[in-house]
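User: Before I run my own analysis I want an independent prediction to cross-check against. Here's the chain; please return only the structure tokens and, at the end, one sentence I can use as a sanity check.
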Amino acid sequence: MNIRGLDTANYRENVNSYIRYLWGGPMVVTLGNLYDTSNLPGFAAVGDGALLGAILYRLDNDECEISALFSLVQSIGAGTKLLDAVIGTAKKNGARRVWLVTTNDDTQAIRFYQKYGFKLKTVHIGAFEVTRTLKDGLPSLGNDDIPIEHEFEFEMFL
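Assistant: Structure tokens:
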């Protein structure tokens, strides 16, 4: 598996398709802010010419938000290597903090981020109701039929 810059690896269209499929993108909402992921920088995990996963991020002053992360094949280390690539980029660009948001139903992601070293900063109780006002068609039930209600904010200081 190789980690490549998203645009240099020519996987942008595939990643945009997955963002549409997974999150109804390209528009996503984090903490009440709506933005377009279709042109965000990122990395692709590639093996044997196939897309295995991707990560998108936003640099803003001395912070880096991980806007999207997905792995199409579990337990091969793609997510970890993609996070490593963004952490390295954040450090090179002078970021002091990397952060991300996930919903309360995504227990697999919550475990993964904590194992990687992210700390839970806060739980934004009821925040997904604001998200629903900004973006149509979002489900009320998520993974394992857990009601999607809250946003968990994780962070890592560099």
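Sanity check: The chain has one domain: 2-157.
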